[in-house]
Amino acid sequence: MSTAPAHPVQTVSAHRTIHDLPDGDWALPGIVNQHSHAFQRAMAGLAERMTHPSDSFWTWRETMYRMAARFDPDTLQAVAAQLYAEMLEAGYTTVCEFHYLHHAPDGRPYDDPAAMSRALIAAARETGIRLTLLPVLYMTGGFDGRPLNARQRRFGHTVDAYLRLFEVLHREQDDTLRVGCALHSLRAVPPDAMKMVLAALPGDARLHIHIAEQIGEVQDSLAIRGDRPVRWLLDNAAVDPRWTLVHATHLDVDEVVGIARCGATVAICPTTEANLGDGLFPLRDYLDADGAWGIGSDSHISVSPVEELRWLEYGQRLTTRHRNIAATEARPSVGETLLAGVRASAVQSCGFADAALVGDTVTLDGASPLLVGATQSDIADRWIFSGNRSAVHAVSVAGCEVVKDGRHRDGKAIAARFSAAMRALLAG
Ligand code: NGQ
Ligand code: ZN
Q: Is 262 within the bounds of a domain?
């Protein structure tokens, strides 16, 4: 692998926002889903029962690990295909898949160590979604360097084995597949390992990392690394626009400005962050610092850019007791501001060229009751802030129509296989 310096990250052409079509429909660029764990689609709605008197992110994680333990490559492909079809129907045309379910449940690699990655690639190919596959490096069970526990064993790699997997997958890149690198979190990757991997990756690889999602993580980082997680990362890695920091919920003022200045993207996952009780991202401060950001559906308790963007804004309204938080006097439309935000970080977060994304379009049904009489100045607000019926009509990826009349072209067959896989998983 080359250690060439980073290519400059490409910027986005400004003209590609929402606009009207001659037949009265509306078109917008496909939306990048910057954070996904596909297998978690199988547990949507199944972690809403009390398991402990003070349930939290950490008790949810035990439930999630139990579900993770049941997957094999076939069930993963069936669940991912259903999820990716749902994403396309909702208007996501690219998914950044943060993939750590690498090995068999006992921790041993499959005969093909890339078998689980290949299941995700196959699901993306059959549905037609653009995939940025992010094989995850996962080595330790906490900041103190403790070994992975029995449930985490199937996530783990040595640095060498990880780089071999990365290399094998990287060779598969094509027009609709990019391969980047994910570090699970500072909890899971010791400093030396992080440095070795970063030094070995191709210069243009995208880098994603979970960071500062929970207060407990901030406390452990302070206690063991002597600094808050984001501060530590900014001081110990050359964070730049190739990086996507997932969640980055708990930030102090210097960290807000630090991320914005280095040009990294924050992948905010509002519905999952609400579901897991993470806390609220300091959106207004971050926008004031000119920070880049996008959205992810993460655990897939919701698969809808509309709902992510709506709740990104609503969370801020609930805590500030004001309205129209993302807007400014220069850009008074909240919806337009939000769509422009996700569009601005698309290329740098997913690693596809801007020119490639030109063929990724979403068409909204101008005849939908929710959009009747919409104008250029209110269409984004009306799409994001009214009702719950999807107005997404047609979706194309790389110029190929995969959703028509609101439905994925292979939706029925994909749903049938998903249903069989779910029965097996729930019985397991
Ligand atoms: C994950 N998900 O890796 O799936 C994580 C939980 C962890 C979210 N943070 C597990 N939403 O962070 O250890
Ligand atoms: Zn995640």
A: yes
